[in-house]
Specification:
3-stranded antiparallel β-sheet; 2 helices; 21% helix; 77 residues; binds zinc ion; single chain; globular
C-alpha cells in the first residue's frame, strides 16, 4: 500500500489550504450502498461547519480525528 503524500490531506472546505485534522465519515443512502464510506477531511476551523452540513441531510456516520483513522489503516479520502 502506498502512503498518500502528506500535502494531499487537506481540509475539504472550499478554498481552505489548511491541513486536515478530522475525518467526517458519511454516506448518502440515495446514492451509496450501506457499506460505502465517503470521507470529508476538515481542519479545526471547518469540522463543525462541514459536519453540520452533512448532519442536516442525515448523512453523517461519525467523526474521528484523522490521526485515529490513519492509525487504523483507514483511507484518508
Ligand atoms: Zn478548513
Amino acid at each position: 500500500m502506498t502512503e498518500p503524500a502528506e500535502e494531499l490531506r487537506r481540509c475539504s472546505a472550499k478554498g481552505c489550504p489548511a491541513a486536515a485534522l478530522h475525518a467526517i465519515v458519511w454516506n448518502n443512502p440515495a446514492l451509496h450502498t450501506p457499506d460505502r464510506e465517503k470521507v470529508w477531511l476538515a481542519c479545526a476551523d471547518h469540522v463543525e461547519g462541514l459536519r453540520s452540513f452533512l448532519a442536516r441531510r442525515g448523512f453523517v456516520r461519525y467523526v474521528e480525528t484523522l490521526a485515529d483513522r490513519l492509525a487504523r489503516g483507514g483511507e484518508s479520502s
